[in-house]
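I hope you will forgive my troubling you with a question about protein structure. The matter concerns a single protein, recorded as an amino acid sequence and a row of backbone structure tokens. Please examine both parts with care and let me know of anything in them that strikes you as inconsistent. Here, with my thanks, is the record as I have it:
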Amino acid sequence: MAEIEIGRGKRGRRAYSFDDVAVVPSRRTRDPEEVSVGWQIDAYHFGLPVVAAPMDSVMSPASAVALGRLGGLGVLDLEGLWTRYDDPTPLLEQIVGLDDAAATARMQEIYAAPIRPELITARLGEIRGAGVTVAGALSPQRTQEHWRTVVEAGCDLFVIRGTTVSAEHVSSRAEPLNLKRFIYELDVPVIVGGAATYTAALHLMRTGAAGVLVGFGGGAAHTTRLALGIHVPMASAVADVAAARRDYLDESGGRYVHVIADGSVGRSGDLVKALACGADAVMLGAALARASDAPGCGWHWGSEAHHPELPRGERVAVGSVGTMEQIMFGPSSTADGTVNFIGALRRAIATTGYSDLKEFQRVEIVVSPYQPR
């Protein structure tokens, strides 16, 4: 890809966000009800290509169960309030009611409470008891400390999620997590990320991960671009990581690693374009935080918002547009893409003439920038 001269001493390639691209219809159309939107990772099949972001404003044990029953995958943040407090409900209500000026400092205080292994076991047990697929997330920094508790609690899918995760972390202060050895020894499929480049994703695939999360600094509650100056537009990032998946498939002799878009998927059109760029599924944060039955009650925040030293996120008001079931399946009374994600996805795949998600990854895309509402 041709590079653009930024100045005499620096060049960079042009990258595209989901707002910069659009899907092109083809010569064939199809009945939306005849479109399959299911996907499978390892031994686990899901009716929806939707993974809930492990954020306290999005997922509680109850909402993880609710999404699982709808056909998606709920991932619980195992470093969140649900594993620090017996009953986090009053604290969730307190966070929602904070003044903006005091929000970050108070959240830092609330999240300073220690993670309790017995609560990890209890929360994952609640999800398992409901009969849905169990998934929990830890950051790379906490994985070595708590992974055994997570596995013994009966976790089906283990998510290692950070703002960025590499297979070659260097530290002179502590022994870094050896992802390749860790995943090899772990008898549970691992989804790891974020990664935003071809090379970083390829290295993560070589560790044995079942899935790679794609994204860096693009979430609705992130301020990573403002705080660190780092950001990768998602359309280009997903397409690059999909290319790494293709090349690793050849390199490994047929091992397929799933690509999950994580960030900038706030509306149904973004979901469609993430899959069109090559993702197998998407991780939704703000989109699900808008559910009236989400624990954030119309507010959204992630772990970056209460980092003890350098917060790189904010608590943002996203409002409520309907129940989680309505957000997934409708019916919708608005035309802004915040409700009926799966109905929109089915119609987009049908309009372009494809029958399932794997076929849809071959759809034509054009560069067509627009200003979102």
Q: What stands out?
A: The chain has one domain: 22-367.
